Amino acid sequence: MAKHEHVRVAVIGSGFGGLGAAVRLRREGITDFVVLERADSVGGTWRDNDYPGCACDVPSHLYSFSFAPNPDWPRTFSGQRHIRAYLEHVTDTFGIRPHLRLNHEVTRTTWNADELRWDIETSRGTFSADVVVSATGPLSDPRIPDIPGLDGFTGKVFHSARWDHDYDLTGKRVAVVGTGASAIQIVPAIQPRVARLTLFQRTPPWVMPRVDRPISAPERWLHRQLPFTTAARRGILWGIRELQVSAFTKRPDELGLVERLAKANITRAVKDPALRAKLTPSYRLGCKRILLSNAYYPALTRPNVDVVASGLKEIRGNTVVAADGTESEVDAIVFGTGFHVTDMPIAERVVGADGSTLAERWKNGMEALRGATAAGFPNFMTIIGPNTGLGNSSMILMIESQLNYMADYLRQLDALGGRAALAVRPGAVDGWNRRVQSRMQRTVWKAGGCDSWYLDANGRNTTLWPGTTYAFRRETRTVDLSEYEVLRAPVPAAASAAGSRTKEAVQ
After folding, report:
1. Rounded to two decimals, what is the model's pTM?
2. Could you report the per-residue pLDDT of 325-377, keeping only the tens digit for each?
3. Engineered SS bond to 378: which of 48, 186, 231, 423, CB 3.0-4.6 Å?
C-alpha cells in the first residue's frame, strides 16, 4: 500500500474530462494534484471501447480540445485507435504523467467536516484532497441486463466495452444484443467472418449516412503550417451543429425532412420489405441518439444475418430466446446494451456532509447546479455531470465549459483565504434543475415518443442539456457565490479560549 498523500485537488478518471481537468489545473498554475485512474493507462471510454469498428460519430476536429488542436487527424471521423493516441499525446504534451496514479481505483471518498477535506480510499492507498473533481463519465461502467439463464450459458459472453480479443469469432454463431451506437459498428465489422449473426433489436435506431473520408496530405500540411485553418475548420463544424439545436430542443417537427432522408437511406440499402419494416423506427428522429453508418444496413441484408425485432427474453443452455419466441443456437453473446448512465457506480462511493452517499441523494434523479455541484457535497465537482450531455454535437465543448467553472471555483476558494469550502445551496440546485426540466418538456428527447437511455427510472431526462453549447458556456463562465454557502474549519476549543483571553487582556 502506498503512503498517505494530501493534495489540493484529486481528479478521478483519465478520459477527456479527467485529462482536460489536469491540463486546466496546470494552466492555472496548480501543480498540487493527482489523477486517480483505476486502469493501467489513460483514455477512459476510448481505452475501454476497442471493439471491432469502434469510431467516433463527431468530426475529428470538433472532437478534440480547443487548446490542443491536432492538425494530423487521418480521417474526418476518427477511429478509436487515433483518439486514444491523441489522449496519450495530450498527457505527454502538457506534463500530466507525474500526476497520474494508475491502477488506483477509488473505493470510497468521504467528506471530513472537521478538516474541510475529502478522505479518499483507493485500491492502492489513501489520499486526502481539499477539492475532488469526479470525471469518471457516464460511459464508463457497462450495463448487462439480468437475463434469466445467462449464468448457465456455456459459450462466450462479453460486453462491447470489455471486448475479448482472445476469443476468435471466425466461424462462430454470434448473438448481438442491442442496436445502439456500439452495435451498429460491431455488426458490419464482424458479419463477414462469423458463421451466423443474430441481432436482437428492441427498438430500431434512426441511421444516417456517415460522410467520412480520409483527410488528404495537403489538408494536413495546411493545418500544420497555418494553425488558424484548423481553428476555422473547428469553428465551422461547431456553428453548423449550433444551428441544429433548436430543432431538437424547441421545434421537433422541423426534423421531418431529415426523417424522410433517413427513410430514403433505409429504402436504398434494404430491398426486402419485411426487413425494411423491422428497421424503420416509429418514433420521431432524434428522440434516441441518431446513428451514423454506411455499412450497418448492408450488413443486415447478408444471408448469414437474422434480425429479431424483439428483445432477448431468456437463455436455455446455448439457445437464446427472444420475447416473441424466436430461438437461435449461438456460440457467443455480445452485449451492446450501454452503460450505467443515470445510476453511475461512482455515486455509491462518495459520502457527503450528512453521511449519505451521492447515489442516495440522487435516488429520485441526478441533480447538480450547472452540471457540476450537488447539494450536501462541499468542494466536490463533476465533469460531464447531470444534464450536460449532447444529442448532436461534441462533448468536448461541454467539458471545456465545465473546466472554466472548475477554474473559477478554485479561484474563489483562493480569494476566500484560509481553510474554506463551498457548499452549494439546495435552493440553487432546485432552481437550476426546475429550469432545465421545464425546458426539457419541449425537446424531442421528451416528446419524441421513445424510451431511451437519456431517461432515468422516473422518466426524467437527467442526462442531456436542452440548449446550445454557447448557452452552456455562458452559464458556466464564472461561479456565483450567492449560490453557495462558505464553510470555515471549526476553531478548536483551546484556540477559541486563548483568543478570548487575549481579547480581555487588550480591553
Report:
1. 0.94
2. 999 999 999 999 999 999 999 999 999 999 999 999 999 999 999 999 999 99
3. 423
Q: Are 157 and 333 in contact (CB under 8 A)?
A: yes
The CA-atom distances, in angstroms, between 378 and each of 219, 266, 353, 428, 486 are 48, 51, 7, 14, 9
Nearest of 113, 146, 161 to residue 380 by alpha carbon = 113
pLDDT (average), residues 55-68: 97
28-44 confidence digits (pLDDT tens): 999 999 999 999 999 99
CA distances from 102 to 41, 95, 157, 382 (A): 7, 15, 27, 20
Domains of the chain: 2-141+340-488 (3.50.50.60), 150-211+247-335 (3.50.50.60)
CB atoms within 10 A of CB 158: 17
**pLDDT bucket at 3, cuts 50 / 70 / 90:** confident
Please count the other Cβ atoms lying within 10 Å of the Cβ belonging to residue 461.
23
Q: How far apart are CA 442 and CA 248, in angstroms?
A: 9
Instruction: Report the DSSP pairing between strands 125-134 and 156-159.
Output: unpaired
d(CA 67, CA 176): 39
